[in-house]
Amino acid sequence: MRKRKLGTLLLAMLLAVSLLPLQAGAFTGEVQLGSGSYSTVLPPGATNPQSNIYKTGSVTGPMPTNDWWSNLAWDTYSEAQYPHPLAVKNQSDGIRIYYPGNRITANSSCVCGWINDIHDFTVGHTAVASFPDAKVDGFSDWFVKAQYQSGANAMNVTYGHGSPYVYFTYSGGSPKLSFYTPPTVWSGSASTPVIGITMEGAHYGLFGATGSTWSGIGTKTLTNNGSSYFSIAVLPDNTQATLNKFAQYAYSHVTNTQVSYSFNAASSTVTSTYTYATQAKQGTQTGTIFALYPHQWKNSTHSLLSYTYNSVRGTMKTAEGTSFQTTMKFTGVLPSLPDKGSYSKTQLQQYVNEAEAEVYIGTTDTYWVGKQLGKLATLAPIADQVGDTTAANKFRNDIKTILQNWFKASDASGNLKSQSMFYYNSNWGTVIGYPASYGTSEELNDHHFHYGYFIKAAAEVARVDKTWAQAWAPMVNLLIRDIANANRSDTMFPFLRNFDPYAGHSWASGHARFGDGNNNESSSEGMNAWAGMVLWGQATGDTAIRDTGIALYTTEMNAINEYWFDVANTNRPASFTRSTASMVWGGKTVGDGTWWTGNPEEVHGINWLPITAASLYLTHYPTYANKNYNALVSENGSTNFDAWEDLIYMYRAISNPGEAKNFWTARGAALGAEAGNSKANAYHWIYNLDAMGNADPTITANTPLYAVFNKNGVKTYIAYNMSNSPITVNFSDGTVVSVPANSFNTGNGGGGGGGTTDTQAPTVPAGLASTKTSTSVTLTWSASTDNVGVTGYDIYRNGALVGSSTTTSFTNNSLTAGTAYSYTVRAKDAAGNVSAASSAHSVTTNPAGNQYVTADFTATVTKPTATSEKITFQPTTAALYVDIHYLVNGTNQQNVRMVNNNGTWEHTISNLSAGQSMEIWFTYEKSGPQYDSPHYTYTH
Length: 940
What we know:
Oligomer: single chain
Shape: globular
Number of strands: 55
Structural class: alpha+beta
Strand content: 25-35%
Helix content: 10-25%
Largest sheet: 8 strands, antiparallel
């Protein structure tokens, strides 16, 4: 949230305090970090966030802020929160629950799904009419637990992103649901613990404990008598089958959620794993039903259910289980664009000279000094490219002077400074820079926007001065830990303060004190922060910081393309006619204003700036960029722009570089650059895109600092090497580029598109083997080799292509039991070369039997004889052990360690008789943790 007048990876970040000796500070409360320091004493005249945090004794350690649920910690109860698909609000009488769903409205500039003064019902407590407050009683990566307490009477409520469920536990009373009008009860009765209701067109399942009953049916108040635990679920429809499905998981309460990120440098992909821990309040069910946002289900192969929900982000699709994964391409960042522009070097030099003559000061607030730092960071490499070493050194020295001033809490006399310093607030677990602005101190707003400029400027210095970087790294890392800490053991800062791993993007407001929930305006400044982490981590050799930056950059890029830009035009109602969202809120999407103006130039430009070499994701969809630009012109009424002309021309270069150059020729001399930009950077960007085209996201590289440009089919391959030794970069289309130490691939700033053409096919796959069930065959083979690198394999069944794999295994599902199949495999490389087919491998599926398939395993029951059963368990991820548990006719539980047969675990049960009732379930290891499967029953 910002009011502005103008324009696991479970990675351990560098905990500098543990790596550097603690030195005596010049004043009490000064903490030395490398060559810098921060203060634990509030500077004179500075403001702090409120001291009161609404949390229980169960919450220890740093308090998360800038989340979708943050207001629960800041206010007595809370403003509205939007976990999606539900909306909720903590009140004195309980928690208000509302499903926007088909009641979402839209007009030309708003997709609106807020609560306002309506709700479907409020869940309260039979013994308490009004609670004194609601407090945070626990939290995880995308769930929160609220406690309502009045004496011995308590109600704990757990809810989270993507969950159709809200979970309750009670002491001293029972669940009481209050409605505006009596709901329609379409399933169950007063004597059943589960009932299905409809309220104002929204359908819900209400799930009381076994043995509980309902009173008040037909009235505006329903009471679930005899439940110490309870849950509700918003349902996609009002059928009995749907109610039964959601009842399956209603007593499997979510207790923890956790994301982990993994960056595969070879394929330039980020895999995000989302995991749920649950507690069975009755029965033994594990896992839950969860709803995925568009940026998730479009990038996941997880099996989906048929149920969907409508939201202000678009259609949410559902799945079930204990985890799911998304895989997204990281499209690279560069420290600067290369020197490939069609510009005049004389003119570019003139713009560098103009910037060099400016005076840069470091005494303004964190945002505006950040803008100065960002401007200098783009100027320095451009000065390098025109051969102006004096200007380049000046720009980087100005960065050093500003940062070193801010990175020291004491003045020359050893006294606490009142400005240009950072202070650590241990109550909230955050670092605040003073002078603060736009609520960065009292409200903890915008830290990633402000500090991102500091980090990215430090990365530009670190690119050429490793000694400086080593001395000041602990202070840079302190800012990174504040906005994007990935070390869950860090006792100073919360996990990923500004980034919401489930929503896929950052939030700006620290307190989220709005009826529309939290908000994020300048998505591009968030991207600037994550790009800064990538560049800083690469420059300093800190792969933990680098890879966290890559994960956040990649995920937020996908979220921006879905929710700010909607590049595929699939997520918003047709009545929303704006080409862009200027702000995304929890409860709405708006496209006609910023915090400070409705001026069209700034409404559009706020999600572009700062435009740097890390902004190439804006060029991935030139058709959309053309639509967005034309909408700006229409809203403005002409191409006579009165603000941010330089940014607009830079953006226009994405879809029409010729027109952008014409604009620059006509207006370049007269315009004033946006405060964080320069004429040199604008000119450099426009003419580089004119020469090379836009970035091509379909081609990746095995180094993080890269880009591939494509102009009418002519590609330019760019990579930057921050190491002291040459590297060889392999691009996914087979191009190979050698990059000298500390430079672009043809010299520092030289650009170039050198490479080789790959025409050699991989070797033929060999050694095909298989395991099988009655409906599936899993193939394995020996890896092929290639002169550049094998990128995958195509699998053929009976001569027809049935799938591809990037590993040396493949499972072919949905086969017919007892049927013979013949398989061959071909290897392929990035250049499109394909090997000859392997030798055919024949396999016959097992006879028909019971089969149970989840995202984590496939279990199959076959009957080799009339008195025996063969049970196989095939985990998706290789398991160290699998135990089977079974009951015959409900008695004499047996627990047996299954036998591993090439990745398929087996056990045979003997001495059975026809008609006996069987109950089986499994305990299995998966990457460390142990899990229990659902229970399955059938008749032998």
